[in-house]
Amino acid sequence: MSEFVKLRVLPYNKEIVVEKNKNLLQTLISSGINIYASCGGRGTCGKCKIKILEGKYTTESSQFISEEEKRQGIVLACKTLPVSDIIVELLSQLNFIEEIQQHIFLH
Length: 107
Hints:
The protein has helices at residues 24-30, 67-71, 92-106, and strands at residues 4-10, 14-19, 49-54, 57-59, 74-76, 80-82, 86-90. The protein is α+β, with helices and mostly antiparallel strands. The chain is globular.
């Protein structure tokens, strides 16, 4: 039988009941929150960064997360599973906007 936890997503302040140990990228997308991940959630682009503000989780290490980001609670949504109620802040939208701006200014 599946266990569930609560996921609160900032800045939307949206609360979602999710299956425990289901990756956060899939959870966010299936809940209607579009999060940028050009690799489709395989962990190869580093674009789906989120910040864990509260709660317990498991995550895989990634070349895309610096030591400083780890200390700040930043993880890849595609490689992170909640194990308790959790609060996350979306960062990828900002990264996506910055990437678009860089592309525009470079071309």
